[in-house]
């Protein structure tokens, strides 16, 4: 009779121990969850800057590595040079475009307050065109008069709309400051690249093993390719357009430059803006100046077709719709930083999702990016 009693007691003790272990696990999880929640609240105001800094560091790492070797293994000096050069290359044009954009909007608001609001009439030179010159001249002036009358009629709501636009543009100034902080922080990340790489690989390995390390490397490759092939080429085209607009004193060049950058990031190209501006130049300027402007703009229109295949690795085929959603959603959600951040984040998510959902097949018909996940070794020293 004693053995059944002992078994009952042991079973009860085991059940009590199991209950205590579960309670202890719940308490530990609750404490961890509480600290995680507090950490998220503390980091949330800086999360966007930190993410963009990490993306910049990943994109600029090959340049940093090369420059450090050239300078005789001086990582801090190399990171400092990269930070200063990036600030001069990105922040200065952004600030100038933003200021010009705001000035143009304020000038338009002042014109709307005036009672004699008019639009530019057609150039007299159009009359001399054979056959259709007189008709185009009359139609131009008729449309200008009708549009000016409509703007005067609805000037009150238009002023309110432009006031909202100016307020949003003022918030872009804060985005420029966030850019400055992100670039400086990315320089710090570059100097810590080896330690951060080891931490990311260990964390990825703990989460998903060797496949997790492959995903981390695929994410780094995607960030570099999209940054160089999409954001980099778009920024180069936009910078060339901005310099061209400034040299020829094109009106509203800040707004036009901003639209061109958005179109280039969407991989549509600057043609939707440059071609109408070229046509306007032939109407408004002397033929020699219009010809020079056209000759300069033509290479800018096609530079992306030459550089993008060179800068982007083969096998990275992020659809344009993903880039488009990233640009629009990022801009609406996070302003100026979101314009850069949105397409990169969505591209990384798309590539990771594709590699996870459609793993490599023995037939070798999978995408190169998916094969990269399967073939990457976790012992590589290159940061993801």
Main attributes of the structure:
384 residues; mainly alpha; elongated
Ranges with pLDDT <50 over ≥5 residues?
362-382
How do the SSEs run, as a string of H and E?
A: HHHHHHHHHH
Shape: elongated
Strand content: under 5%
Work out the number of β strands: 0
Q: What share of residues is helical? A: over 70%
Describe the largest sheet.
none
On the 0 to 100 scale, the average pLDDT is 75
- End-to-end CA span: 66 Å
Secondary structure tally, helices: 10
Radius of gyration from CA coordinates: 29 Å
Secondary-structure-based class equals: mainly alpha
What's the topology here?
Elements: H1 2-70, H2 75-113, H3 133-153, H4 155-191, H5 193-247, H6 253-265, H7 271-284, H8 287-311, H9 320-357, H10 368-375
Helix pairs in contact: 1-2, 1-4, 1-5, 1-9, 2-4, 2-6, 5-6, 5-8, 5-9, 5-10, 6-7, 7-8, 9-10
3D structure, described in words:
The protein is mainly α and 384 residues long. The chain has a domain at 217-384. It is built from ten helices and no strands. Helix 5 packs antiparallel against helix 9.
Give a concise summary.
The chain is about 85% helix and about 0% strand.
